[in-house]
Amino acid sequence: GEIPAGTTYDGLVNLTDILPTICEAADIKHPDPQSLDGISFWKQAIGRNSSVHRDSIYTWFSGNQPSTSSEFVIEYAFSKDFKRYAPDANYPEGRFFDLRTDLFEKSGDRKVEYKQFWNKWHHSGLDLKNLTREQQAAFDELGKVLERKGYTPVQSMQVSKGEAPLRPGDTMELTARVQPTNASRTGVIWES
Fold first, then answer.
1. CA distances (Å), 30 to each of 40, 46, 81, 189, in order?
2. Helix (H, G, I), strand (E, B) or coil at 22
3. What is the per-residue pLDDT across 115-137, written as a single tens digit (0 to 9) for each?
4. CB within 8 A of 7, min separation 6: which ones?
5. What is the tens place of the pLDDT at every residue in 74-101?
């Protein structure tokens, strides 16, 4: 359908929201909707009201470094107005920015160059002991997002298979069980 002129969307859109939006627009059911982390914004895109929208976005990445190297991990959550970084080696207390007045995250009396992330300088942000009431509420709310979504590494993996020996040309289905079950990255790449 045609999108009405003047349509606005009040929530945030994350890259993970694109697939569920396309599926809803094309009236296609995803085979495993529980595996999706995205939220469709199709109703809003065509001018209909919907109470389902994203208030914050959580991101975890390691700058193409091994995911087991915690010194390279950067983790943050943000809303339209605020951004909170989880503690890391350079900022053990974490960092917090008011994006309404500091969109490019340049505030703070300290800055550290993160060479693993394209030599980008990371500023310390607002003084966490002197936040306004509104900033403190956002800091706490984004802290809940970081806690709920935080990176959980895989501790072990068990591969199960049938007992029969394989002969040339035979096939066998293997399954992998990852522990803990709430690990952040549970995908397995099979190679033979």
1. 12, 20, 32, 22
2. helix
3. 766 668 899 999 999 999 999 99
4. 44, 45, 46, 47
5. 889 999 999 999 998 889 999 999 999 9
Length, in residues, of the chain: 192
Neighbours of 39 (CB within 10 A): 17
3-state secondary structure of 97: strand
CA atoms within 13 A on the CB side of 54: 22
From 79, 11, 78, select the one nearest 51 (Cα to Cα). 11
Query: Which of 41, 77, 83, 47 lies closest to 59 in space, CA to CA?
Result: 77
- For the residues of 35-67, what is the DSSP string, one character each? G------HHHHTT---S--BS-EEEEE-TTS-T
Could you tell me where the DSSP H helices lie in the chain? 18-25, 42-45, 133-149
Task: Decide: 89 and 117 in contact? Cβ < 8 Å.
Answer: no
Query: Per the structure block, which two tokens stand in for 180?
Result: 């803990």
41 or 100, which is more confident?
100
Instruction: In whole angstroms, give the CA distance from residue 146 to residue 140.
Output: 10
What would the two tokens of residue 155 be?
């501790």
